[in-house]
Design goal:
- Pfam families: HI0933_like, HI0933_like_1st.
- This is Aminoacetone oxidase family FAD-binding enzyme.
- It comes from Pseudobutyrivibrio ruminis.
- Keywords: FAD, Flavoprotein, Membrane, Transmembrane, Transmembrane helix.
- Its cofactor is FAD.
- The protein is an alpha+beta fold.
- The chain has 2 domains: 238 residues, FAD/NAD(P)-binding domain; 146 residues, no CATH class.
- The protein is 31% helix and 23% strand.
- It contains 11 helices and 23 strands.
- The strands form 6 sheets. Strands 1, 2, 7, 8, 9, 10 and 22 form a 7-stranded mixed sheet that branches. The protein has a 7-stranded antiparallel sheet with strand order 17-16-13-14-15-12-18.
- Helix 1 packs parallel to helix 3, helix 1 packs parallel to helix 11 and helix 9 packs across helix 10.
- The structure holds flavin-adenine dinucleotide.
- The site of flavin-adenine dinucleotide has 38 residues, from helix 1 and helix 11.
Amino acid sequence: MNTDEKVYDVCIIGAGFSGLVLAIKLARAGLLVCLVELNRMVGRRILSTGNGRCNFTNSRMGAQYYYSNHSLDFISDNHNDLRQFLNELGVYDKDLDGYYYPITNQAKTVREALENEISFLGIDVLLDNRVTEVSKADLFKVTTTRTIVNAKKVCVASGGLAAATLGSSKIGYKIAQSFKMKTTKLSPALVGVKSSSQCLKELAGVRATGVVSYKDYSCEGEIQFNKDSVSGYPIMCISRFIGFDELDKKLSDIRIDFIPYLSAEQLKDELTKRFNRNPKATILTALVGLCNEKAIEQVVSYSRIYGDTTVDRLDEEDVENLVYFFKNFTISVDGTKGFDSAQVTAGGVDLSEIDTSSMESLKCKGLYFTGEVLDVDGICGGYNLNWAYTSADIASKSIIKELQ
Ligand SMILES: Cc1cc2nc3c(=O)[nH]c(=O)nc-3n(C[C@H](O)[C@H](O)[C@H](O)COP(=O)(O)OP(=O)(O)OC[C@H]3O[C@@H](n4cnc5c(N)ncnc54)[C@H](O)[C@@H]3O)c2cc1C
């Protein structure tokens, strides 16, 4: 397609969730929109979300579930708006304890519904076009590897650096910097954490619940142990802090509380009670049921007790060591598994450079940013797609008001 002569109202860079939502909202308002995408299909990343099921929002919604270097007070609970938006495209949803998925359980449904609407609205989509530069004179000029798109406004919805194989590039940050906008440090987030702790050789394959702490940050859930890394919900949640500490060379250990349902004092009483009931039981028998059996074996080993020791041979110090290691099981941290394994990018275009009531750059009129490219990242649970939607929704309202 030769777009040299045509002047679009808006050129959107990136046909991910954010770009697609924005394009649909603008085209429905009668604006002439061009979507430019480096992949050969729109919304490719959506297919991988929620383990192929697409957890697109959450009933517990608000600024407290997001991180940024800037205030996020403008984020409110809009999860029902997003549900309605998808519902209007034919995507019905189901609520799994507040986590929303398409009723089909297939992320494919969401991608296809968005693609169908883009096609129905007759939006021009330039696939297999990598944007290399954006410049501004009277109009914006978006240069791709194949063509040049002229537009009155441009929205950068090009995502972050996570999961490069699904299509990611630094273009969003480069465009911001070319218009003298600041970007913050970038870290992989919602990602597994590498560790060379010896205990992982024994724990590999285990899934155990507990509270994971890293410095001041804690999160509870199922931890998955692999031979050279840990993952699972609580690890994903703290990984962004590990990522930034890795950049600053300030890494610390992870601590796991395998028995969060008892305080240290209650656990000590529980152990004493168990040991008194059957003094001839081996330590491993006496501890059965407190938490995952492999975790118990490791805690006993950390406490320097042999598994076949009968409990009548344990002294006060042994009990204190057991309590300590059940509640402070330590794993060394070598860093995160990196952007390729990450679900999202922490950091991005600095929100202090953006009017958050419109998502427009404060440095360049007519230039907008939405989605993951901005310095906003959410926790696990549908928050990042919700942010992609929220920012697109804000931008759409502002652009429609100006151009209609
Ligand atoms: C494995 C995985 C699972 C996830 N699961 C969930 C989940 O269940 N729930 C949730 O809320 N979030 C989830 N996320 C995060 C979520 O997918 C992203 O936060 C969200 O898709 C960001 O949307 P976006 O539109 O801002 O960016 P993207 O979806 O990344 O879209 C950006 C688009 O821009 C294109 N692009 C990039 N550079 C260029 C260029 N130079 N020229 C043209 N096009 C370009 C890309 O190809 C891409 O299509 C998951 C992420 C991954 C990787």
